[in-house]
Amino acid sequence: MANSKYEYVRLFEQPDALLPNTWIVVRIDGRGFTKLCAKYGFEKPNDKRAIDLMNAAAKAVMTDLPEIVLAYGVSDEYSFVFHKTCQLFERRASKLVSTVVSTFTAFYIHSWPTFFEGSLINDVPLVAPLLPTFDGRAVCYPSVQNLRDYLNWRQVDCHINNLYNTTFWALVQKGGMDSVEATELLKGTFSADKNEILFSRFQINYNNEHDMYKKGSVVFRDYELVNPASSNSAQAAEAVDSVAEPPIVSKSKAENDKKRRAKARITVEHIDIIKDDFWVRRPWLLT
Ligand code: ATP
Ligand code: ATP
Ligand code: MG
Ligand code: MG
Ligand code: MG
Ligand code: MG
Ligand code: MG
User: Fold this and answer.
1) 268, β-bridge pairs
2) Residues in CB range of 72: below 8 A, 6 or more apart
3) Ligand 3 center to 165 CA (angstroms)
4) pLDDT of residue 231
């Protein structure tokens, strides 16, 4: 073991292990994406290439880190949920956050050409210095209810922002307003008002917009879906209803689960995660 008179500086490192037995959420967010969108010509309000790219990077992160049970993405952000029993990096916050952020960023940049280059109408190579970068933070949620409320918060935010952006950009792109006029018109409006503006002025039924934009993206490991009518699912429903905590698992089961998780297919869906149905049909996610 290397020993030097300088070794003492290690003592300046502060412990940052996250609270045990809690669900860890690492949320990353694009830095200055408003500017980045403008530079690389993202379509407004939603550039599908950019969302597909976010989702590809999130899938790569989940493949790399089997301890992640689920991820939820919208706009330039992604939340990664680590299982409450996760022991990766002894749960050190700086290690977890920096690993997620750099893995995500590496795959985002690596996959950029797949989504933004390769044809005459779609050829937007990355050019320094304005390159995609992300920040990140970790937050612990002690109960399944808290965790689900966190995810609900993000999905509700997705809905509110998307309805606003869809209306705003319709006013600008189809209604000939400038951004000051559109902002002024939307000030103080409720959801119903925006739905009405979209429908009466632009014949857009918001309900018919893509779920990818309305609901965001949910990434998870897919096993066999539980049939809502089976007894298996009745138990799961009960567990979700009472937001019961998963039991403490034995080491061998944990190892087995880890292997199964590492092998499972990772899918991206644009679905409601606020209602119980998503969780009832996939009881393995929060157990
Ligand atoms: P910060 O560094 O503080 O996060 P930011 O400019 O990234 O600043 P955000 O609040 O994160 O601010 O907003 C992200 C911006 O990127 C929003 O304007 C959002 O509309 C835009 N954006 C993200 N993804 C897309 C997309 N797929 N298509 C179009 N616009 C997008
Ligand atoms: P961890 O994920 O725990 O950091 P690690 O394999 O990255 O694991 P480190 O202690 O960070 O372990 O060691 C980095 C390794 O990379 C060392 O073996 C080091 O010799 C090697 N390495 C780093 N840079 C170079 C380089 N430029 N040329 C040759 N080897 C290098
Ligand atoms: Mg930010
Ligand atoms: Mg951002
Ligand atoms: Mg953001
Ligand atoms: Mg090293
Ligand atoms: Mg290293």
Assistant:
1) 219
2) 78, 79, 81, 151, 154, 155, 216, 217, 218, 219, 273
3) 18
4) 47
What is the arithmetic mean of pLDDT over 207-231?
A: 84
E-strand ranges in the chain read 23-30, 68-74, 77-82, 134-141, 217-222, 265-269
42 close to ligand 1 (CB < 6 Angstrom): yes
Q: Which residue has the tokens 């609270």?
A: 19
User: 247 pLDDT band (50/70/90 cuts)?
Assistant: low
Q: Where along the chain do its domains lie?
A: 16-155+213-280
Q: Residue range 109-131: average pLDDT? A: 95
Q: How many CB atoms lie within 10 A of CB 10?
A: 7
The CATH class for the domain spanning 16-155+213-280 reads: alpha beta
Q: Which two tokens stand for residue 15?
A: 């412990």
Q: How far apart are CA 25 and CA 147, in angstroms?
A: 8
Give me ligand 4 centre to Cα 97, in Å. 16
User: ipTM of the assembly?
Assistant: 0.93
| Degrees, nearest 5: CA angle 224-96-287 | 30
Token duo for residue 274:
């606020």
Check whether 36 has a pLDDT greater than 70: yes
**Identity of the amino acid at 181:** E
Q: What share of the chain is helix, strand, coil (3-state, %, to 5)?
A: 50, 15, 35
Q: Is 50 in the pocket of ligand 1 (CB under 6 A)?
A: yes
* C-beta separation of 27 from 79 below 8 A: yes
CB 227 within 8 A of CB 233: yes
